[in-house]
Amino acid sequence: MAKNLSVLARQFSTSTANNALVRSPVPVYGIEGKYATALYSAAHKQKALDAVEKDLSGFTAALKADKKMGDFLYDPSIQKTLKNNGLIAIAEKMKMNELSKNLLLAVSENNRFQFLPAISNAFSTIMAGHRGEVVCEVTTAKPLDAAMAKEVEGALAGFLKKGEKALVNYKDDPAIIGGMVVSVGDKFCDMSMATKLNKYSELIKSAA
């Protein structure tokens, strides 16, 4: 796997003047993080970051909306050569940057189509860091009203460094019962009622 990613990084970079990877402004993990980091380095060198981000967002949206495309890419019985030809046609139709097309072909070569949405998300996270944005996620049992959302965003601002901007995503999950679960960058805080109840239940069991 490490060898494949090393080759991938070289494939992304068409410049022979500097083979050193450009460091990602924020850490992203897993297989998707490695692909996204290699892509960020190459796109940064070629000043194509915005184009690549737009390509990945557009492709994953199309993949989600077009069931036939997903079935074609995820079907293991379809030959890799046929898939590669299909990907090249899709990339040309969407007028993708060459780096974006190379990513699709590299993913195809390693049979990792299932990681494409996660790679796109990881790249978006890196780009948010590149712009000085900090990705924050707030999960509550039910959607927040405007006043509460404004209060939460004010509290989140206190965790940011000078010059940083919060990029807040809201999710609702009835399973947490109440309270909220908050992540700010790579920091995580679980203030949900469900977690508190679990802790109380464990305390009661241990005292019995």
TrEMBL record:
It is found in: Membrane. The keyword Cytoplasm does not apply. Keywords: ATP synthesis, Hydrogen ion transport, Ion transport, Membrane, Transport. SUPFAM superfamilies: N-terminal domain of the delta subunit of the F1F0-ATP synthase. One of its GO terms (cellular component) is membrane. One of its GO terms (molecular function) is proton-transporting ATP synthase activity, rotational mechanism. The keyword Transport applies. InterPro entries: ATP_synth_OSCP/delta_N_sf, ATPase_OSCP/dsu. Pfam families: OSCP (PF00213). Belongs to the ATPase delta chain family. This is Oligomycin sensitivity conferral protein. It comes from Acartia pacifica (Copepod).
